[in-house]
Amino acid sequence: MAARDRRRRHGRRRAKRRASIAGPLALAVVLVLGATAGYAAWHKSRATEGSAALDTGVTGTTTPPVSGTLADGDSSPSPKGTTSPKASKKATKPSASATTSAPPTSVPKHGTGSFSVAHASGSASGHGTIRRYKVEVEGGISLSATDAAHEIAVILADPRGWTADGHDGFQLVSSGPADFVIKIATPDTVDRICGAAGLLTHGEVNCDVGATVVVNLKRWMLGSPEFDGPIAGYRALIINHEVGHRIGHHHEGCPGPGKPAPVMMQQIKGLHGCVANQWPYDSQGHYLSGPPVA
């Protein structure tokens, strides 16, 4: 009996020791789990705020993702449900078409086939033989005959133009006799007029037929990929080249790499190392020549 009592008392003491240890351990586990859950909830909240700040720059607000392509032309969309800072900024930027007018990329192929004379005239420029000329513009196109005539008159009166030779001059007239006529026409009409003289313009280039200089509206409005100057410069090249034929000049080639292309060079066919140029003479009155071309 005494032995059994001793064993019972010893078992009770061990059970008490285990209980005294298990209680604090369970409490510690509960505290650790609670802290972990609290940290996870806090971290999730901070991550949401961080992504909002990344999208909009303002904590607590979000910007809907941009669908499709981005406004800056990048074809790679942002990851689903998120928007990068660059995408948010670009998405609100207005497109170029909304603020600027694009230059023309085409012209009408044909007009009415009839021409209107510009009601414009001016004083003679140059010396020697003064050639009177008229300017006509085909109907059915958005081009003022008067404006075109004034622009051509300025070109032919420029000191770097043909008047620099000392024996050729020009005068714009709107009535009476004229030595030649400058017609600005659509590509189809140019082909018809030039083709009647056996010249194939293929809807692209200008020609000089009899007493008529035929200017292709396509070249007048769009210029040439070989000419890297402003459109006004290319118009000067057109007029000076065709009027050059009128006063007896023939085609010339490139005089050498890096040199100005002669105005009588067919620059639309390539510069061959020369630099695009629209004037027969330089500012010192020297003729910008090249080797003859058959």
Q: Would you summarize the structure shown here?
A:
36% of the residues lie in helices and 12% in strands. It is α/β, with parallel strands linked by helices and 294 residues long.
Overall mean pLDDT stands at 76
The low-confidence parts are 24-102
The biggest sheet amounts to: 7 strands, mixed
Give the overall shape: globular
Which fold name corresponds to the CATH topology of the domain at 117-251?
Collagenase (Catalytic Domain)
Number of helices: 6
CATH class of the domain at 117-251: Alpha Beta
Helix and strand run? HHEEEHEEHEEHH
Structural class: alpha/beta
Percentage of β-strand residues: 5-15%
Q: Using DSSP, what is the number of strands?
A: 7
State the end-to-end distance: 141 Å
Helix content: 25-40%
CATH architecture classification name of the domain at 117-251: 3-Layer(aba) Sandwich
Question: How large, in whole angstroms, is the Cα Rg?
Answer: 42 Å
